[in-house]
Specification:
The strands form two sheets. The protein has an eight-stranded mixed sheet. Strands 1-2-3-4 form a four-stranded antiparallel sheet, covered by helices on one side. Strand 10 and strand 11 form a beta hairpin. The protein folds into three domains: 247 residues, no CATH class; 213 residues, Vaccinia Virus protein VP39 (Rossmann fold), CATH 3.40.50; 153 residues. Helix content is 55%, strand content 10%. The protein starts with 6 loop residues before the first helix and ends with a helix. The N terminus and C terminus are likely disordered. The protein contains 24 helices and twelve strands. The protein is an alpha/beta fold.
Length: 700
């Protein structure tokens, strides 16, 4: 099985394996978070462990010989997911996620400790990721492509991300996910699978896996964001919709004229403020029967409905007997609410946010949710700016946690001014309506709404959600103890994986490593790149939207920018000194981008695209630096050694990502710059501390 492919074939195979690596890592995140919604809160760790395990595979000598076990290991991981599907992990979410105590209305009869379940998942994904990492290394060495191999792996990574995006958008179920994953594996591994029994050992578990995924997919509805299940209330007049086992919305199965006013009162109360002829914007319109239909009922002339998940809108279209979304007065947009607010130029009489409580992470590369950038000071400022002169902003929100209500109140006050926010509650309920009026009277609100504004105003904390710190559901600027506990367990687990894999590292001179100071630089460069990438994602997400589509495109753009920088350095003679100068200048431009180019408060040139270029500029210049050292190496093996340390540095930087809850995302640039400075010192100072003269000259 240990065969060498022809160089031209190996380069194609290297791209295929690189596609597989990225697609596999994302597939594990998608698969397990849709098995159990609670895993979404640790989705970034799931991805990072997959990345680390792939990198660890680069340290092994012969693990690629066992890559025929990949389908069997993948099947075992999927069976674990099916087992954990039987447990209610949401009941064990603690401090940081207290809001789930009221959101989790679909409790299963027994539960399991979340972190224990998550560690089991990590143990399941590590072996297959090690195997594909080892195979990618094998193909890289066979290709003899040198620094160009780094470019090929980057191109494969972009293609893997885009392929996952297409699958996620258009064939969202597990069956298509597993089918594409297995097809990629066999496309890359088939030449290595020599022998009838070896191929049989790969094919049989693959067929079992596809059968399992087919039946699981058929039992559920799938959207680009979540697994969707339907239920019904005891009375049978409301269809209940669950997102990854958590209640998310209800859709009325009765026409509006068959529902008594008192039964509709709870969700229709805000629309008592509608006046005939009003132009109403509904954010998070869901199935449309609890908000869009009510706005029309109370006399709105036009309703613009924004819903991020196309499946929710389709359910409403199918179930609603009044066919509200088909009404000529309704304009439906499938979009992220914050993105819609950014790009629309229309002003509205009423802007209504209807329980936009997302249980889905927007990105597995950053610790925020789909709704994170809507409930921020800047998000509320944008809503307020789109109101007509006598307009009203209404945010409906439900939580059983006092400090989350307080955070919402103070974040809105920070946007529209102290004493301009009024808060009402349903008698004895957990629902709250946060209302801001530019002049219209609130006297038409129904009497069962009880005002509690003074109660919240008396306990201001001063901590608000912002685009830089969008952590509505974090009590303080403190990393939750249970998260630190999990990170410690994950770190020990990764250390064990690293020690096991490095024992198999070849001492063959043909696989000689790059100089030690290159590896030190590469490690710090990986950690720095993660934080620079994190900064770019966190800044661009509020502008381009939190949909998976825009997130994937942003991440692909970031990787492409790094590759372009590497290509420039590969084609043009750039000295390390010049490369470092461009990097630190790029970091400086990125640091000043918000002040100079931000599309809403830039002081020099307020432009979305100039701002985006300034934010991702350090990523391209970092690629220039990395390639400046790569192209000085004599062998493909040395390139592989730098690549593996770069990836491991990136993963460990990712595990430290939680520091943003202490500092905010803006500090990511500074943290990244600090790591780059350490990398610079490694290649500029370390060789002078006793390495041979030729090493000194190569570093210079």
């Amino acid at each position: 099985m240990d065969i060498s492919l022809k160089p031209s074939t190996s380069k194609v195979s290297l791209v295929v394996w690189s596609i597989l690596v990225v697609f596999c890592q994302l597939a594990f995140v998608r698969g397990f978070t849709t098995f159990n919604g609670a895993f979404a809160y640790y989705g970034n760790i799931l991805l990072l462990v997959g990345m680390f395990s792939t990198s660890a595979g680069f340290f092994t000598r012969r693990a690629h010989r066992y890559n025929y076990l990949f389908p069997a290991l993948l099947t075992a991981a999927y069976l674990l997911g099916l087992l954990l599907f039987q447990f209610n992990l949401l009941q064990t979410l603690t401090v940081e996620f207290q809001w789930t105590q009221v959101a989790n209305l679909y409790a299963k009869p027994y539960d399991m400790e979340l972190q224990l379940a998550f560690v089991l998942v990590l143990l399941a994904i590590i072996p297959p990721c090690v195997l594909i990492g080892a195979s990618q290394k094998k193909v890289l060495l066979d290709s003899a492509s040198g620094p160009a191999g780094y470019i090929l792996m980057g191109v494969g990574g972009i293609l893997g991300g885009l392929l996952f995006l297409l699958q996620n958008q258009y064939l969202s179920g597990h069956f298509s996910l597993m089918l594409m994953l297995l097809l990629l594996f066999f496309a890359g591994a088939w030449p290595m699978l020599t022998g009838k029994y070896v191929r049989l050992a790969a094919i049989l578990p693959a067929l079992v896996l596809l059968a399992l995924a087919f039946f699981f997919t058929a039992d559920h509805i799938w959207s680009p964001y979540q697994r969707v299940d339907l239920g019904q209330t005891k009375s049978g007049d409301v269809l209940t919709v669950y997102s990854n086992d958590m209640f998310i919305l209800g859709v009325s199965t009765l026409p509006a004229n068959q529902i008594t006013a008192d039964k509709r009162l709870d969700y229709s109360a805000p629309f008592y403020l509608v006046q005939p002829g009003d132009n109403v914007l509904v954010l998070g319109s869901g199935g449309g029967t609890a908000d869009v239909r009510e706005a029309l009922y109370f006399g709105a002339d036009k309703v613009t409905a924004v819903e991020i998940d196309p499946v929710f809108a389709q359910i409403g279209t199918t179930v609603d007997p009044d066919q509200t979304y088909q009404d000529s007065r309704v304009d439906l947009h499938i979009d992220d609410a914050r993105h819609f607010l950014n790009q629309t130029g229309t002003r509205f009489d009423i802007i209504y946010g209807n329980y936009l409580d997302s249980q889905t992470n927007a990105s597995n590369r950053a610790r925020f949710r789909l709704d994170s950038f809507l409930y921020t000071k800047e998000g509320f400022e944008r809503m307020y700016a789109l109101l007509e002169d006598d307009g009203i902003l209404i945010i409906n929100f439900t939580t059983g946690t006092d400090w989350i209500r307080q955070r919402m109140f103070e974040s809105m006050e920070a946007a529209v001014g102290v004493d301009n926010v009024r808060v009402f509650m349903l008698s004895g309920g957990l629902h709250r309506a946060f209302i801001v009026s530019k002049g219209r009277s609130l006297d038409t609100l129904p009497p069962h709404l009880v005002e509690i504004t003074d109660e919240l105003a008396a306990h201001r904390t001063g901590l608000v959600s912002s685009d830089d710190w969008p952590f509505l559901y974090s009590l303080k600027r403190v990393i939750p103890p249970e998260h630190l506990h999990l990170l410690f367990i994950v770190f020990l687990l990764l250390l064990v994986v690293f020690l096991l894999c490095i024992r198999g590292d070849s001492k063959d001179p043909a696989e000689a490593s790059a100089p030690a100071y290159f590896l030190i630089y590469s490690f710090f460069s990986g950690a720095a790149f993660f934080f620079i990438e994190l900064r770019a994602i966190s800044v661009l997400t509020p502008l381009f939207g939190s949909t998976y589509l825009t997130q994937s495109l942003v991440i692909s753009l970031i990787i492409a920018c790094s590759i372009l920088g590497s290509l420039l350095s590969l084609r043009v003679r750039i000295t390390p000194a010049a490369a470092w100068t461009t990097l630190f200048l790029g970091l400086l431009v990125c640091g000043l981008a918000g002040w100079a180019f931000h599309p809403y408060h830039g002081n020099i040139l307020a432009n979305l695209y100039v701002f985006a270029i300034a934010i991702i500029l350090p990523i391209g210049t970092a690629g220039i630096v990395f390639m400046a050292y790569l192209k000085s190496l004599a062998s493909t093996a040395a390139v592989a050694s730098m690549q593996r340390w770069n990836l491991i540095g990136g993963v460990l930087g990712g595990l430290a990502e939680c520091v943003v809850i202490l500092t905010g995302f803006s500090a990511s640039s500074l943290i990244g710059a600090s790591f780059y400075l350490l990398g610079f010192l490694a290649v500029a100072v370390y060789p002078r501390l006793g390495t041979p003269q030729n090493a000194k000259s190569s570093a210079a």
